[in-house]
Amino acid sequence: MMPHWLDNFLFTYQSLVYSLGVNALLALAMYVVLAVGQLALGQAAFMGVGAYASALLTVKLGAPFPIALLASMAAPALLAFVIGAPTLRLSGVYLAIATIGLGEVLRILYLNWDFAGGALGLNGIPEKAGFVWIFGTLIVALVAFVFVSRSRIGRAMEAIRADEAAAGVMGVNLPAYKLAALVASAAIAGLAGAFNAHVSSFIGPNDYGFDQAVTILSFALLGGVGSPFGPVLGALVLTALPEVLRPLHDYRLVIDGLIIVCVVIFLPTGILPWRIGRIGARK
Amino acid sequence: MLAQQLLNGILSGAVYALFALGFTLMFGVLGVINLTYGFYFSTGAFIALYATHYLHMPIWAALPFAAAVTGLIAIVIDELLLGPLRRAKAPELSSLMVTLGATLLLYSLMTAWFTTDIRRFPPAVFDGGAFEIAGLRITLSQILIVATTALIVGALALLLQKTRLGLAVRALAENPDAAQLMGVNAGGIVRLVSFISGALGGAAGVLIGLNYNAIQPYMGEAMMLKGFAVIIVGGLGDIRGAVIAGLVLGLLESVTAGYIASSMKDAVGFLLLVLTLWFRPVGLFGRVAAKRA
């Protein structure tokens, strides 16, 4: 099915390769909300909802994997839809803090929810998500984003990011776009969470908190949010980096942090400041 | 039972208030959410630990010493991280991100040096003795916490409301450009506010470290999440709001732990935070569109 060398490579670096794919999807989830100028940091929380939804379905109820995946998108999307209306009225740091607060509330909920394993989390999740699932989804998502960027919707999103008030005056339905972006972001993050649960076979309540939210934001920031490729590149770099920096042991995260600091100060538009909207506009 | 719960609530609320004061002051004057603030909390505790352990300082000297050193560290961190962004007039998102990255850097540096082992103050530093007053149990460290918090809150209120320096700080918070035209030394005030905030965070760290006698690098991160709740509920940049919201959070947490479940205690702050943001984003005492110091 797969070439021999790829099989070998996957066997050796399996968990790293899977993390690359999962983190790239999470970076895309972050990109969707940043693309409409919303600093909503709920991706880790949505990832957790997706992971718990699919893990509970497969482990406790024996549901087939595709059904679990659908649920892992639907559950966080529904949550995003419900909290969207009051949350998206907030802006800037308020929105960021509210969405971080959401993650913490969920964390405490998992901790106290015995059916979901409480503090121990869930073990023995079937390892059904593989290379094809994860990277297939990533490619489909990237292609979809390119098409959206080139469409009327993509231009509207860029207009909102550049100047919300002006976009609103030009007839862009701001609440609808923001809510749609949040729901799409939640669905993608939830799916990434499900993939992650079904390759690592274990999930715990503390995997989706503040640290994870920050990590996901740093993917998008490092890559730049001009195009969906920026965040994906950022995710690949920041996921592979700890492997490259392995000899540094305890100082790996120090370098990670240093990179984020330096990028913000010296490269405010990310390492890939390229925009797709331009190509679309030439039509 | 209820009285003891309320007493415990006021005690932890006092530390939340002390911690949140520096956080909210920093936002009010500098206009940024500085996420490295939780690091000052851990730093204060560690400096006090080393001061008592290696320099054999008594705790009444170690507390101000740790606060002052943390304040100086805060000045340096602010200048290195936020200085360039302030000069470039970078957007809000940049300052949030740069302090996020710095938080990761600083905590992992601290963990690499000190490991995540829990450390304790030497036994000679502090008498863990407790009093019984009218059936209520209160320890010496708890008395120290309340006394220090009251002292610091009072001193800060006096400084901000009654002195020329305080006037300059408030002017800068209200309108940076106008304040500078009136001859306020903006750079100096920024450093002063960084110092005070860092010192407040550091002092809160020492007090919590004493109270639980458990110190480790990530202690500031858990506190930071409570700090968010307090400054949002109290209103960003609102000093009086932070004190009241801190006490309210402490009381609610301790009542929740006593009457519902101790595991739900940590959820209270976030529920409060989310509800405040949904229904009253300006905070408990905020007026819409009001700018405050």
Task: Explain what the structure shows.
- Helix content of chain A is 73%, strand content 0%.
- Chain A has 283 residues and is mainly alpha-helical.
- Chain A has twelve helices and no strands.
- Chain A has a domain of 198 residues.
- Chain B has 293 residues and is mainly α.
- Chain B has one domain: Orthogonal Bundle (ABC transporter involved in vitamin B12 uptake, BtuC).
- Chain B is 74% helix and 3% strand.
- Chain B is globular and about 60 Å long.
- At the A-B interface, α4, α9 and α11 of A face α3, α4, α9 and α11 of B.
The low-confidence runs of chain B, each spanning 5 or more residues with pLDDT under 50, are 288-293
> Secondary-structure element order of chain A, as H and E?
HHHHHHHHHHHH
What is the helix/strand order of chain B? Answer: HHHHEEHHHHHHH
Q: What is the straight-line distance between the termini of chain A? A: 40 Å
Mean of all residue-level pLDDT scores of chain B: 84
What are its keywords?
heterodimer, A: about 280 residues, mainly alpha, disordered C terminus, B: about 290 residues, ABC transporter involved in vitamin B12 uptake, BtuC, two-stranded antiparallel ribbon, 11 helices, 2 strands
Entry summary:
The complex is a heterodimer of chains A (283) and B (293). Chain A is an all-alpha fold.
Record the SSE blueprint.
The complex is a heterodimer of chains A (283) and B (293).
Chain A: H1 4-35, H2 43-61, H3 65-87, H4 92-111, H5 131-150, H6 152-162, H7 164-169, H8 174-200, H9 210-223, H10 229-244, H11 252-266, H12 277-281
Chain B: H1 2-30, H2 37-53, H3 59-87, H4 92-114, E1 130-133, E2 136-139, H5 140-162, H6 164-174, H7 176-181, H8 186-212, H9 219-234, H10 239-259, H11 265-279
